[in-house]
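ok here's the first one, seq then struct tokens
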Amino acid sequence: MGASLGHPVQAANDLVLDYSLDRSFDGSSDYVDQTNDLEKVKGLSQGSMLVTFKTTSTKVANTFISAADTQDPSSNLSFTMNNGGIYFENRENGAYATRLTASGSFNDGNWHTAVLTVGSSGTKIYVDGREMGSSESTAFFSNVTDPDGMWIGKNVDNTGGQWYYNGRIDKLQVYNKALSAEEVRALSDGATNGFFKEKELFNINDGKGYAQYRIPSISVTANGTILAVAEARTGGDQTPTDLVLRRSTDGGETFSEQVILAPGVANGHAEMNPMLLAEDTGSTVHLLWSRWEWGNCKYFIRTSTDNGATWGETRNITDVLDAYTDPESPDYFPNLSAAGMGPGHGLQMSNGALVVPIYLTTEGWSNSTVAYIYSTDGGTTWQAGPKVPNPGGYTKIHENMMVELSDGGLMANMRNPGSDYRAVSTTAGLNEPWSTPVSDTKLIDPVNEASLATYDENTILFTNTANTSARTNMTIRMSDDDGQTWFASKEIYAGMTGYSDVYVGPEKTINTLYEKPAGSKIVLAQFNKDWILGAANIRLQTSKQIESGETSTVKATFTNHSEKVEKDVEVNLEHPENWAIEASQPVTFDEVKPGESVEVTWNVTPDETVEAGTYDLTAVASFTLNGNQTSATASKKIQVLPKVPTETSYLSDLGWISALNGWGPVERDLSVGENDAGDGNVLTINGETYEKGLGVHAYSEIRYHIGGNFSRFKAEIGVDDEVAPSSAASVVFQVFGDGEKLFDSGLMTGEDEAKNVDISIEDVNELKLIVTDGGNGNGSDHADWANAKVIVAKEDISAATMKAMVKEFAEEGEFVNDRAAHSLDIHLTAVDRYEDQGLGDKVVKHLEGFAQLLDYQKENELISKRAYESLQEDMEYLVEKYQ
């Protein structure tokens, strides 16, 4: 940070001390002794102090400036940072004249300007131009009667130095007047339109007798009423617990006394997992929760029609779980022992449906998954939604939150024990199947609860403890692409914390209710989007997928969120090797004014040699603010797809977009075998062997990019013989084209014959093969996609393409000798000539001879089964075409 101030004239005239430091302090011994200047300020009865700083320290006390009587243990004036907040104390002989805190997490590694003002109207603390705390005290330097020292970076008492500052300080100033709010704003370098404030809502020291306050839930009604609910526990988890509510009708400035909405303590019940759900219009809000008792799950609801002022009777809605306990139900969950909700808040979808995320688990959490319940009649009745698949790596997904996506679908973000990341699944809409979960490696997590909320139609918010080993670093993130990437993040609190719930009010204030720390306190942090984005932000837009050799457009948008002109702006794109990048307009800008945005687009082309996979593109913006150069970055992942085949092909010969398997890897031309690659056996279904195909284990999901080039998908499917017919193997085969289900085998076991699959895949770009377990777990679920292949669009088949196929098969050793291939080629040469001449009858006649030769070669084992079937299929098509 630079030392130029650009003061308003009036403030400059009242400047007493002006220190341009631009230096770091180590937090243990560094300081600057300014005792020689003490005479200039010790008599001030009013005035102001300003400091520009940045730090990531979590120390209890970091001193900006302090004046003290070093002979006394407790006579000092100190302006400090305490636990991430800004703090001022003024005391004489142990008697405090002022103790004032501006709560926040200003130890986020960004530059901030903190200003203290003391005048006839009291004491105020401003951070980045916004008032964050106030006190009636009017005490300033003169309150300390005999100061004998003044320091930047530490305090001193009769025991020596203490409270050493750890971080950087750019400048520190003292004024002889209480600066006005306008002067403070003008002096706050790079101040943004962001704001942040916190209020404590629940504290175990409130005299109400609870041992813990945990599990926050928050909603804001259409008229702006804020409702905050928490578990009030008598002990730890699953002990008798009340659900208590506090309510604000003035935007969070004041809250009502807490009231009990679900009285569990008096009845010995653990009323848990609160889920507030405020309807988008009107004054109706619901509270749903689960009563936790292993082997006896119960769900309840209460409804308010006056923004939470009064509540209707408790209703038991446990029968909604019948869909998960009925063996005949498609959503049956074997051995269900407990069912929780969220926790957090529910949502109302754009179609009006009310949705509440839930989770289901067996005893001891050995197997769990996620689902939702929903209502289409305003909460009167509730229905069960589909379960999220829980294959290997995701068998214990449970606590979760959901958000509606831009296309009307849903995204579930889930706790996943055993992983360092959040698990994510999506569905196309209400009652549509969920995708297989994946790990979002941007969202690190210590196995904890997290929250989701919609900010606007383009933006999703996410909060969690962004740490892999401890429940610390409460962080909020923003996504503008339905959670595919997260373009901005900011730490709310660095210390020990826990669960959180984030909700956006109608005026776009972001409300985050979180544990600080877990068990003892729950606080409400309120801030806006600009506080997250800081002085400047860059956003990157790309397509999700691209083919090598093809060109796609990438766009970066740089926005100035500060109140100062940002100069010398340059936006560049970092890219992998062998990618051609060409900007379509200049990438430099002399200046960008507050609130304005500039855009840069590039044409991006991965070279033909670039292999299929996922790659990072990063936009980097550099700019100058207040004479200091800084930067902002944004990254997106883009997937280079496998080459699209142009001929009829076995899937085992093609590259896939992704492959998930319940045991070991997906095997090509082998059964799944054991846990290592290549350890399978010959594909065999009820005694019939197959040279080609895919060996999988439920749950399995394989995605192929086929580019709309094919007309049909064919395969023979079944349970592989490497597991006994009497085993527990039971699977269901499914085929999807561009997200639409095209085939479902129904339940298949080891006793079933192979089933034939022959379906149209015209115009399909992405083909997905899924094998699920049959509802009894995935033990022994070895499944085969035998002879799985995609058939080129029929209009592309000709004698010439068949000649090329014969040549390729010969090169691959599919004939016993060259003579066999040559004889087929001679027949096809004649057919090709007659096709060119338009003599259909002669085409058919010569193809009949070709068919006889093909059968002869098969009977005498001169040709492989694979080559025979492919050539026969194309031959039959041409005969039908010309007859």
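and now the second one, same deal
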Amino acid sequence: MRIIWILMIAIFVAACSQEKQADSVRISGTVENPAGDEVEIFFYTDMVANNTESVKVSLDENNAFAAELPLQQSNFVYVHIPRRTLKLYLSPGADIQLTFDASDMDQLPLLAGTGYVESSFLLTYNKEIEAKYGMMAVLSKAGEKDPTAYTDHIKGIYNEAISFMEEDARFEDLDPDFVSLMRANIRYEKYGRLMDYLPARAHFAPEKADEDIPESFYAFLENAKQFNDAYTRSRAYVSFLQSYLNYRVRQLEEEEPLDSWAQAQFDIAMEHFSGKSRELVLAQVVHSALNFGDFKEATAMYEEFMDISEDEQLREVVQETYEAAHILAPGKPAPEFTLTDINGETVSLEDFRGQVVYLDFWASWCGPCMQQVPYAKELKERMADQEDLVFLYISVDTDESAWRRTVDQHDIQGVHLNVPGFDHPVPASYNLRGVPTFYLIGRDGHIADNRPPRPNNERIDEVLLSALNQ
């Protein structure tokens, strides 16, 4: 009897051990020519805020690493080290070993272990297909080809991608769920590129922007099966939904001027989508509006979304976005900070109490930021007699020399501060999601406007003068 109990306990322990293992993946390996000493392994937990589950490990003296990452369902998993990121596809319980050169993007990693065949195929697919048909390489063809030729080009890419997968020697060994997800990604990348034709043509060939395209170009949109909740795990499908949404908004804009692009997106999503697809798109619209739009309008959309959404994960993500935005809403105290300026002097936000601060988060590598520089110079000239107006710049450049050089070369006048990246406490306290981002802080140290116009906006003078008169 004692032997039977021992066996039962052993079986129970083994079962528990396997169950624990099935909630995670183990990745180990060696990095050749690393540019850093840390490896990050992560996957995206949602397609709204793009939150991640991640683990970071240090390379040992032999440039080897090993890590375990919680993973409860199959997903794309990324292995990142400076200069190179590998995209894998793993299922719970996988235990893989890989060796790769961080300096050679063309060299395929070596894989071994258990549960690696999908990753092995994906790495090859990305090298042979994704690298060949990157987004900008494809969209640039919109400026060269008429609608029919462009459609044929996109269909050709789709057929090549499908054939590449089906003819691969590993195809029969691939997990059916992975194959289904790959088919969805390839299919909706095709539709997404077709949806991008008009804006891409306007960008790459502005002289053709007003040329009509045949109604048949969008015939594929009439297929009701295009919108299917079964594909909501496909990032390409979700991107297609956004492209379709913007297409409908542009159609509406052609009929009459829009009061709000975000509100139009919200209303059209309510009308054209259903189920999980609709909730996912609505969550993206609200998330974007809370981060980049008018807070009052975004709050109204947030409240409506929370009333109709039944997806707990989406509700949680959107609620977190709202709470982060609410802290920085007009009327709230601006987060305090103390930093060293470009001249080595200590500067605190509190130093400017009694003045109006036009705060600009920027970076020297940011194209849209640099586009604002000449407009900002003109704005300062127009506001030269406003002694209580402070132009305060916080750069997120990790390369301090690049920051200093850019300020000097472009003669950017104002108070200049620098923090090394978005993860620094100051940009984090301002919920910085991208650059450029502007805030207008009133004389009382409270946020007057959390989304003031940029220097090139015709309303900027009015907004600044209004704050100065408070």
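notes on #2: Confidence is low (pLDDT under 50) at residues 1-20. Residues 147-257 form one domain.
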